[in-house]
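User: Before I run my own analysis I want an independent prediction to cross-check against. Here's the chain; please return only the structure tokens and, at the end, one sentence I can use as a sanity check.
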Amino acid sequence: MTRLPRSFAPGSFAQTLNRTAPFGAEVTELHPGLGGSNTMNRLVVISNRVPLPSDGPRAGGLAVALDGLMEKRGGMWFGWSGQISPNACEQHVQIQRHGMVDYATVDLTPEEHERYYNGFSNGVLWPLLHSMPDLIQYDRTDAQIYRDVNARLAAHVQKLIRPDDLIWVHDYHLLPLPAALRSAGVSNPIGFFLHIPFAAPDVMEAAPDMADLVAGMLEADLIGFQTEGDMVNFAATAVLLAAAVRQPGNVLQVGARRVLLGVFPVEIDAHEFAAQAEANARKLPVVRLRQSLPGQTLILGLDRLDPTKGLLQRISGLRRLMETAPEWKRRLTLLQVAAISRKDVGCYRALRSALDRESGNLNADFGEPDWLPLRMISHGVDRATAAGFMRTSRVGLVTPLRDGMNLVAKEYVAAQDAADPGVLILSRFAGAAQQLDAALLVNPNDPDAMAEAMVQAMTMKLAERQERHEALWNAIENRTPLAWGRLFLAALLRGAVRGSGRLELVETDAQQALAGTG
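Assistant: Structure tokens:
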């Protein structure tokens, strides 16, 4: 039997499913209370941005996580088109079909994009949920338009929902959407999954509107999180701000209803990524990188330019290494890819300026005419090239100050040559640390610890590198995004019986859901 991920909460529905069937078993979604049909219920995914087939290769974590499930199972994916239009509020939903999936999209107005997306989603919720309340830029109008956009999305998608649909809402942009869907008359099972962390109750209280937003989430039947800590924080916040009552088995009582909580760490297809890394390690961009680093150890960081990623702390760690271990001068290079994102948000612009300043100071203080300790680039690289970079690097630095999961950490493990693997240095505050505890775990706020971990990684003997890599590989090799999605849907299907006042947490039902005999 596939072993249980350590981050699944004891007593959670996810754990019940894992006890009774293989993690990747096929799910035939039947719901006897939804019209009595013996056919698979349609899946309706709702996210802020819809990854349209015309957009090209998938890059974001949400798209990577859900693509396989949607391609195999079919359904509808609804959300923002990525387009901004002055008359968006008067437009109809645009639908395009690709394979078995209907991609249904709406545009945003310029004001909605600025206030719903930049202002409230990324100026308030993103830093707040990452436990950085000092970065919040709260504006009451932003908060109102955030709620208005969620209501508009609910009104549009309500017209497209069928009686037998299963609805799966994703991420912090859409916290009020379960409540907005209920207000629009939707009675279907609703699952909500938060891809980023959930902060402790005292942090959540720092911003206005949180009580209403938590209450909105509680209109879902199942709420999923990346880690047990996130789930515990949400439950405590729901009790504090939304009058929820904790019940045994990760259940919240909300009036006459009960809401199930669960822990579902997002996964990658490790075998697919390993093959991609091996193939791309021989291609020109990776060959050129290796040729530019004769006799040097490559340390690699791959991140979005974001305050949560610990980029300034990473530079501080490298500076401390140069100060305390000068023998490494000219023997290492840190390549940091920090792809610019959300450049319209003030704290992101400030971070870019700080990174430019600190990286310049580091190279000025320790660099030579023919060598620099840090190479910093502010544009992204495609996923295939990134996989090749990972495979050729000796050290992978994944050191966020806070992260929901961080799939780059899992990708780094998958990319390695098992015969001569690199070493993963991983922040204790990344959700992935619960599964990848064979990495070198560090506190990114401690520059001395960062420097020591880099030296330890660069000097680690082959036998220890292989042992650590084997343990890390074993933690990810049998888990896939497809199985993750099926597990969540099985929990939603069997765990949420809306309006009955009960949640069916019965092992035989869970087994039937995964085995396809329900």
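Sanity check: The longest strand covers residues 75-84.
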